[in-house]
Automatic annotation (TrEMBL):
Source taxonomy: Bacteria, Bacillati, Actinomycetota, Actinomycetes, Kitasatosporales
UniProt keyword annotations, A-Z: Membrane, Transmembrane, Transmembrane helix
Residue stretches spanning the membrane: 27-48
Superkingdom per UniProt: Bacteria
Stated name of the protein: Uncharacterized protein
Amino acid sequence: MVMALFLLVVLVAVVLGIIGVAADGLGYLLAIAIVLFAVDVIFFAVRVSRRAGRRPVR
């Protein structure tokens, strides 16, 4: 479920970035896409690091 949400947000960020670059005067969409992508990657990294810390020691 979380991986699907991660991929959906990445897809939305890519689409916004493409629209922001292609359309004249919509550069703010590119900025929103970059921020959205960065937040999504940070959230995913934090989630993975928390999961890695719960492994039992052998």
